[in-house]
Amino acid sequence: MWRELKPIGRNADTGGYRRYAWTEADRECRAWFQEQAEARGLAYETDRNGNQWAWLGDPSAGDAVVTGSHLDSVPDGGAFDGPLGVVSSFAALDELRRRGAQFTRPLAVTNFGDEEGARFGLACVGSRLAAGQLTREAAYELRDGDGISLPRAMEAAGYDPAAIGPDPERLARVGAFVELHVEQGRALAAMDSGSAAGTGHAVGIASAIWPHGRWRFDFRGEANHAGTTRLVDRRDPMLTYAETVLAARREAELAGAVATFGKISVEPNGVNAIPSLVRGWLDSRAPDQAALDAVVTAIEHAAKERADRDGVDLAVVRESFTPVIEFEHALRDELNRILGGAVPVLGTGAGHDAGILSASVPTAMLFVRNPTGVSHSPAEFAPEDDCVAGVIALADVLEGLACR
Ligand code: GLV
Ligand code: MN
Ligand code: MN
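^ Those are the sequences you sent over. The predicted structure of the assembly is below.
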């Protein structure tokens, strides 16, 4: 499975993945998912929001155990964020069949669409729509960098956008959702395992996801000649933007939060022109809501102060927000019991479909050790032994939940 997925959407120069929603690379990933489902005799379906499902047993029986993740990527993402969860889900099912497991609940493997939000700016679109956390109307307003709307992109990929929207009947069939994911930090690698064999744990269980959001900062100034415009006559939004980036770092440090400007666009984007518009997207996350509010407010305040000095107009729009997610304690404890009781439980600053779905169904996550902690980068990596340990842990969990 890993070999088959490897070339899809991989940029030859960077080695990173560019698997954006409703593009050719996404279509190839989806075709791969369908092949995997059919090769295992699973009943394949695409839901009204373009999420893919592969069923073992009768979906309408209810109380299903569902596992999976996503196949799309950030710009120049790694191979593991998303695909490790989908590949491990199919591999865990293979392992359970090898064990001769007798299922008492339906089981499904899923691929949720557009988790990273790389193309349309909003993360977890597939799960947000299904869970009713994104309305059809709001989804229709989403546009990519070329101005193509989400419904047009879906249509171009052969999907009917008329049907998108809340899917409570489908989610009501799910008794538990478990997402396995590569850890996006070094917590598991750095832990004391208490054994002489060395430090770290191959697998962990998620406790919570930090509250997080994305804000768009529009800095509007005045385009003018880079050679002839005196410094005192300029209204240069790049200056305001630069000061805002430094403020974000400062405020995040003060609050124990994180804040990142990872994407900008500049107009007219000419070397010898003062920009008329700098647009920067802030991603900020914190351990709790109060800290996050404080950080973003302070960054906005610093940006406004500098904008006034630069003669620049500032508009800030919150494009998305996900409150703190505390995964259900009963399911989390059950996973720990199934896995022998000594599995570390850890929080994360990364967003996941599991976090979105946790408002609708009991949800849990397994993390697989990442020795460098690097993620959202071509260098993202998890060693094969740890990936196999993840598959076995997921198989144990699915067996414990679905074969009672
Ligand atoms: C998704 O990976 C996110 O946390 O942005
Ligand atoms: Mn990601
Ligand atoms: Mn992910």
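The domain at 212-322 is CATH 3.30.70.360 (Alpha-Beta Plaits). The chain has two domains: 2-210+324-402, 212-322.

Shout if you want it in another format.
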